[in-house]
């Protein structure tokens, strides 16, 4: 029952805490992180992706009837401020990457695929939770901005409006996530085309080699090379793709079973140290060197992969694996912390390394709860 215990901790402790400490009432905006004592971020610097993901969490939770009473109004207020401050119109439109919530000055004007994908996810659930046509309009404008500002001749989308290298699979994965949400909730032919285009990149570019290893970093034409850091692998993203591929198969009535199993087995094989349930942050395809840390989010994505595979196959071992990981997360990451908080990064011996409690992990935790929230309503 450890998955259920994690859900209860999230709904009873974490979400209420972040609906208060994670929202700056004066600015009407979400914060980037909490301090280690659980107090709100003092500085005003925020990333668009972090704000958007918190908007998403509160809108989705409100739609499911699992959020604090103020959550939806808070999400709408935060998005109105985000759009007013961070949206750039014109031929190269889109949401900028960062701003200061206190001064409302843009601190990073680049239009980034990752940030715009997160905004699109937030908009999908604002539309679903409220039914307001203004969000439908904003969705259309965001999709148009991504296609126009980040167009790329070699497939997928550019990393950002500056054409930064290396190219990464991660922003494309999150654009797929947003497109899936649109198709699942407010399907249109345009949304289905966006989802299909994003998912196709998995096999055409991201899975490389005879075993289909998921790669992270690429050159301008999706080539692998040392200078682009192509030897770096992230087991947490392999698990995330298991969850997204399962959702894609449910939507498209396709069967990518082998891809899911290969991704998951590779993630566990390269990411787990002997005798440990946890995934390390990164590994090297060349010398198998591991990073000296394990963040919370890869463990949560591993949990979601176990849950997705259990839903897909009904094999009890996957459910047991999910409970084991949830229990380990509660014991290692959610003890010795302020109420409703967590350790975001531990070293390989379990010693905390983080200097803050990033809001980004709230999104990862919520997606686990949302993936099987039916029994909590």
UniProtKB/TrEMBL annotation:
Keyword Oxidoreductase: no
Segment forming the signal sequence: none
UniProt KW keywords: Isomerase
Keyword Isomerase on entry: yes
Pfam families named among the record's database cross-references: GlcNAc_2-epim
Family: Belongs to the N-acylglucosamine 2-epimerase family.
Record protein name field: Mannose/cellobiose epimerase-like protein (N-acyl-D-glucosamine 2-epimerase family)
């Amino acid at each position: 029952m450890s998955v259920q215990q994690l859900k209860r901790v999230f709904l009873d402790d974490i979400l209420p805490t972040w609906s208060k400490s994670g929202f700056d009432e004066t600015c009407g905006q979400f914060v980037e992180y909490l301090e280690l004592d659980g107090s709100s971020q003092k500085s005003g610097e925020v990333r668009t992706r972090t704000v958007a993901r918190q908007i998403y969490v509160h809108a989705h939770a409100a739609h499911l009837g699992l959020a604090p009473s103020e959550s939806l109004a808070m999400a709408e207020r935060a998005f109105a401020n985000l759009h007013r401050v961070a949206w750039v119109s014109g031929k190269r439109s889109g949401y900028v990457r960062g701003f200061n919530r206190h001064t409302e000055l843009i601190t990073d004007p680049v239009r980034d695929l990752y940030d715009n994908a997160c905004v699109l996810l937030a908009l999908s659930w604002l539309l679903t939770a409220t039914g307001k046509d203004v969000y439908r309009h904003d969705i259309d404008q965001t999709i148009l901005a991504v296609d126009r500002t980040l167009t790329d001749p070699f497939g997928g989308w550019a990393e950002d409006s500056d054409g930064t290298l290396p190219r990464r699979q991660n922003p494309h994965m999150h654009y797929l996530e947003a497109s899936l949400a649109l198709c699942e909730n407010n399907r249109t032919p345009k949304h289905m085309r966006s989802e299909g285009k994003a998912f196709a990149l998995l096999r055409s570019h991201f899975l490389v080699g005879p075993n289909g290893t998921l790669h992270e970093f690429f050159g301008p034409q999706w080539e692998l090379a040392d200078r682009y850091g192509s030897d770096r692998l992230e087991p947490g993203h392999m698990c995330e793709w298991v969850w997204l591929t399962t959702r894609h198969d449910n939507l498209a009535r396709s069967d990518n079973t082998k891809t899911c199993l290969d991704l998951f087995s590779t993630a566990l094989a390269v990411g787990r140290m002997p005798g440990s349930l946890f995934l390390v942050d990164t590994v090297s395809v060349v010398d198998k060197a591991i990073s000296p840390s394990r963040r919370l989010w890869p463990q949560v994505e591993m949990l979601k992969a176990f849950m997705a595979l259990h839903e897909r196959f009904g094999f009890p071992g996957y459910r047991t694996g999910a409970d084991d990981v949830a229990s380990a997360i509660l014991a290692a990451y959610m003890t010795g912390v302020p109420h409703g908080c967590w350790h975001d990064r531990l070293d390989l011996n379990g010693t905390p390394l983080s200097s803050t409690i990033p809001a980004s992990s709230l999104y990862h935790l919520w997606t686990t709860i949302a993936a099987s929230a039916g029994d909590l309503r």
